[in-house]
């Protein structure tokens, strides 16, 4: 009879490797027999040892493969999204929840039109209710097949996963299928600043002046975080009242990163596509396609004017009163005429502080200067809204603006322009620096 000197297989959990199991076979032990001098017994023992070792290796390999595949599948399912048609392309999502398509279909009542909250450049946003009664906003990307649509999905997920701030919209989760891309956000019951300014239903309350001030400051802080505390910096590229949401306490939450650009400071910031909303787009971005954080500063300045006036950035109805179509030009004109009371939203019914209105308009005009180098950084905007450094910057702006205006009037007197020529000159200034 052949005896193994010691049972050869021992499996222990590794303390120094990432493997769950550290299994080994030790065949260095010699086989002993009852009679060491018997050739037949020695050969039999050798055969049994070889066969047993071979079977042990096969068994061990099968076990290791089983555990590895199970662990690999679970890890992939929880952490990564598979992008069909793109080999080995993965996006890390940290703690984000991955929703099933059916779950979001039920939550939105099969994406019913009655649940539409809004529509942007890449798709519609629907109100939804999850199975646990949680209200959500589901953004359904409609052009996922185009490079822009798929890139928008990846861009938004990447950016929101690293941008966490009380004044930035938090992403709850996502859903991806071979034909769909969806993003899931908390539902903001007070909707957007634009809604509260211009789209109220009967019986709904308007934004009071203290709330408008808080919205202006909260939005500035959110943009400051994107520009100065994210690495790489994040440029929103479509800052406007419609993209600033209001939570249950009417705190500003900057949303809709679908158009945003994740800027690596080591790479160029020139884009082949201009993204944004007319009236909010900085002139240098419109004419050159070059965006920067100062592009957002310009859009923020226009948004401040929306908050003060309650009006849209472009309003053709002003032509009936021979006013400027662009809100920025309209405000500049009234500011020169010292008619600031005519600028303020009539829905406020005189319930505001005129000094604070003037301060906010001054910040807005500083943010919307024609040259991006002249615009303040968002951190400086925050300080000015808090009452620091505005007087000095405003004095500089007035000097530059007076000089520019005098030069413009001198050219008007020098050349006999008709009404059409003057209109064309204004159009040139719009596409260039203002």
Describe the overall structure.
This protein is of the alpha+beta class. The protein folds into 3 domains: 2-79, no CATH class; 97-186, Phosphorylase Kinase, domain 1 (2-Layer Sandwich), CATH 3.30.200.20; 193-431, Transferase(Phosphotransferase) domain 1 (Transferase(Phosphotransferase), domain 1, Orthogonal Bundle). The protein contains 12 helices and 14 strands. It has helices at 39-79, 101-107, 147-162, 193-198, 209-228, 283-288, 293-309, 327-336, 354-367, 378-385, 390-414, 419-431; strands at residues 2-4, 9-12, 22-25, 31-33, 97-98, 116-120, 123-129, 135-141, 173-176, 181-186, 234-235, 244-246, 252-254, 261-262. Strands 5-9-10-8-7-6 form a 6-stranded mixed beta sheet, sandwiched between helices. Strand 7 and strand 8 form a beta hairpin. Helix 5 packs antiparallel against helix 7 and helix 7 (293-309) packs antiparallel against helix 9. It is elongated and about 115 Å long. The N and C termini lie far apart (100 Å). Its main location: membrane.
Structural class: alpha+beta
- Main β-sheet, in a few words? 6 strands, mixed
- What does the oligomeric state look like here? single chain
Low-pLDDT residue spans: 1-35, 70-92, 262-268, 418-434
CATH architecture annotation of the largest domain: Orthogonal Bundle
The Cα radius of gyration reads 33 Å
Compact description:
It comes from Solanum stoloniferum. The protein has 434 residues and is of the alpha+beta class.
